[in-house]
Amino acid sequence: MKIELHEMTIAEVAEGFLEKPRGAVTAYNGKLNIRPAYQREFVYKEQERNAVIDTVFKGYPLNVMYWAKNEDGTFEMIDGQQRTISFCRYLQFGGFQYEVDGYPMAFHSLTRPDQEKILDYKLMIYICEGNDKEKLDWFKIINIAGVKLTDQELRNAVYTGSWLTHAKSIFSQTGIGAAGLGKNYLNGSPIRQEFLETALKWISKNNIESYMSAHQHDPNANELWTYFKNVIEWVNITFTTYRKEMKGLDWSNLYDEFHAAVLDTAELENRLQALILDDDVTNKRGIYHFVLTGNEKHLNIRKFSDSQKLAAYERQKGSCPSCTKHFKISEMEGDHITPWSQGGKTAVENLQLLCRECNRRKGGK
After folding, report:
1. Torsion angle in degrees (nearest 10) through CA of 265, 297, 204, 175
2. Sorting pLDDT into bands at 50, 70 and 90, what band is 147?
3. How buried is 339 (Cβ within 10 angstroms: 0-12 exposed, 13-18 middle, 19+ buried)?
């Protein structure tokens, strides 16, 4: 891999700056893609944007920027989008104003010497050339140094193409597409690519890189979008009452297993209500898996306390009521006499200590 440090003026970088709403942002005579697939939207506020111009105007150094060179001779911005867009927007006629000597001044209102001070400002830019793996390694190194790209943003940096462009138009915008449909069920932010990452985890069963590689050059992401919509719609019609515990669950596995099953949604809701009110269920988020799979491990049924187990051990005089043998307390386990699944509660009157072997045979309930 080849990495070189270049010195360029703001005038050179800003030449031909073009910004399309929710679309491409280019500069450097159209050769620099300022907002490639892995970049976020422009997020600088007025104070941060003005600080960039102030740094340049006073001749202070801006942090180095990072570009990647493509095989066709064009470039992609890896780090520096916010700073680059800030000074490019300022240079535009009718752009924002920056205070000079107490007066708000647009760039075209500055004196010629002050304009040249900005245009001739030298930027320090590292340019990387290499294959996809080498670029990804470099992105990770830069990320450690402070760029803070998410895992999905790093993947987007490698698997660029028509598929990713379409996928981002659906999963990376706020208030529309996946964000509008699934905001109650997904954690994270669409802008930080976390909605896209969740959808990819769902459809690929956590083999995101393999899926993105296989579909990188597809004309669109319709398969991913259709699957995502199907999962969310199934959740909506299966679980008729929304609860905050539903947010962030891995719905895809339940959809894959049960979407073709005939389910009594009214009965499911009744069971969910009972589980929400059951103090023995300590993991309320697990109730959705439980009502479909019947697996109690999702519920984290409340366990007996050490003091309760000690009282039971003394009451039993150290004997296991199942095999009648004597054991140390450390060799015994708390057991629901009437299993929780049959209505037994985690209460002293429903507690017995069994030896590990007997408890295992009973099923650990």
Report:
1. 60
2. very low
3. middle
